[in-house]
């Protein structure tokens, strides 16, 4: 390129962008967008962390409110039926007392069954452990005969050396029992008022909001309560079905403690995907110690059968209309809840995610804001299942 004639300034090259003196270099649009999203994500993460940290200090109250909502979801249809013949306060009291009597009766029956089988169960366990030791000493395992004696002596020394720790753990367990009873009492207290006048309480909460937010809160509240009650009823039906199937199978196989193990299966079914296999694994251990390896293998096969029935029949038929979540989302929610808050987190995680997703869908649906959606039911009408508590 020839040099410019004298007295005339050189033109800037088209390949080199011009930049005025003192001007900062231009940031690419992609980096600007990424930075904008990044600081917003960080801000949201900080708010979520602080919120959960604060709630963690009041986790007992949160658990009590959650249990109160569960009791309300279970008893509210019964209260609505009884309210047709009785005054509503009497209907609430009748349903609540009847539920407490039913639960205590089941626990008393299970405890009495376990106590009746205690003496024979100890003999079966001792004989079963001896039989397992003999099988492990024979081919193909060929364990040395003194291996189990050495293991028993080590366990005895471990228990004696940690006796003070075990005593303190037992005492802390007693204090935990007091905490559990306190949470249950608070849950029953909340359930009484949720069942009796939960719709009026929700209308009062909505009345405190700005005028423009009341409609969205009403729609979101209805969707949340409808999903929560559907999940509660569905998981109760699934848990009861699993417990009945497990109880019948264990009773037919002659496994001791069939009724307590069925109750354990019922409680474990509230943790989706992993609860039932864990409960049946405990049943397999009991069958191995009392009836031998063949019955234990049958119980292990029962784990597969119950899992197939639950995953391919009960959940699609019972839970699909209430909780529309992908199995991967359910698994991630269960594991995340267990990591964050242990067993309680694993139980609460799936209904919490389902409620959040239902609220999001309701607020973003095209017909989410019909005029009649904001009209609450009259106080004299019996509350419907889709209304907030």
Describe the SSE topology.
Layout: H1 29-56, H2 59-82, H3 88-116, H4 118-137, H5 146-161, H6 163-207, H7 211-253, H8 258-268, H9 275-291, H10 293-319, H11 327-364
Helix pairs in contact: 2-3, 2-6, 3-6, 4-9, 6-7, 7-8, 7-10, 7-11, 8-9, 9-10
Account of the protein in words:
By secondary structure, this protein is mainly alpha-helical. Helix content is 77%, strand content 0%. Helix 4 packs across helix 9. The radius of gyration is 31 Å and the shape is globular. The termini are far apart.
Keywords:
mainly alpha; 389 residues; 0% strand
- What proportion of the residues is helical, as a percent range? over 70%
Residue-averaged pLDDT, rounded?
77
Q: Count of helices?
A: 11
Summing up helix and strand content along with how strands pair, one would put the structural category as mainly alpha
First-to-last CA distance: 83 Å
Number of strand elements: 0
- Beta-strand content bin: under 5%
**Radius of gyration, in angstroms, nearest whole number:** 31 Å
The low-pLDDT segments are 368-386
Helix/strand order, N-terminal first? HHHHHHHHHHH
Largest sheet: none
Shape: globular
């Amino acid at each position: 390129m020839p040099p410019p004639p004298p007295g005339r300034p050189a033109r800037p090259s088209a390949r080199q962008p011009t930049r005025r003196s003192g001007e900062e270099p231009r940031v690419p649009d992609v980096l600007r967008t990424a930075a904008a999203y990044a600081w917003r994500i960080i801000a949201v993460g900080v708010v979520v962390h602080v919120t959960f940290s604060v709630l963690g200090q009041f986790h007992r109250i949160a658990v009590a409110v959650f249990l109160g909502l569960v009791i309300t979801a279970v008893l509210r249809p019964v209260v609505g039926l009884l309210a047709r013949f009785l005054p509503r306060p009497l209907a609430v009291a009748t349903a609540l007392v009847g539920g407490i009597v039913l639960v205590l009766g089941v626990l008393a029956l299970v405890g009495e069954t376990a106590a009746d089988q205690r003496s024979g169960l100890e003999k079966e366990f001792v004989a079963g452990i001896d039989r397992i030791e003999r099988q492990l000493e024979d081919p193909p395992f060929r364990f040395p005969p003194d291996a189990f004696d050495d293991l028993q002596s080590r366990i005895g020394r471990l228990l004696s050396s940690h006796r003070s720790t075990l005593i303190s753990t037992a005492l802390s367990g007693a204090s935990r029992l007091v905490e559990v009873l306190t949470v249950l009492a608070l849950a029953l207290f909340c359930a009484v008022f949720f069942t009796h006048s939960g719709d009026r309480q929700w209308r009062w909460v909505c009345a405190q909001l700005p005028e423009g937010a009341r409609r969205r809160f009403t729609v979101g509240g209805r969707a949340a309560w409808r999903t929560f009650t559907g999940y509660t009823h569905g998981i109760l039906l699934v848990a009861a079905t699993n417990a009945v199937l497990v109880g019948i199978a264990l009773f037919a196989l002659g496994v001791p403690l069939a009724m307590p193990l069925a109750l354990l299966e019922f409680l474990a079914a509230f943790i989706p995907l992993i609860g039932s296999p864990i409960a049946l694994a405990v049943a397999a251990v009991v069958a191995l110690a009392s009836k031998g390896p063949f019955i234990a293998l049958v119980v292990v096969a029962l784990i597969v059968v119950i899992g197939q029935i639950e995953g391919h029949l009960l959940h699609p038929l019972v839970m699909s209309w209430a909780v529309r979540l992908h199995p991967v989302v359910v698994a991630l929610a269960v594991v995340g809840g267990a990591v964050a808050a242990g067993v309680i987190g694993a139980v609460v995680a799936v209904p919490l995610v389902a409620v959040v997703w239902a609220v999001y869908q309701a607020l973003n649906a095209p017909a989410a804001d019909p005029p009649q959606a904001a009209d609450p039911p009259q106080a004299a009408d019996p509350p419907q299942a889709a209304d907030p508590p």
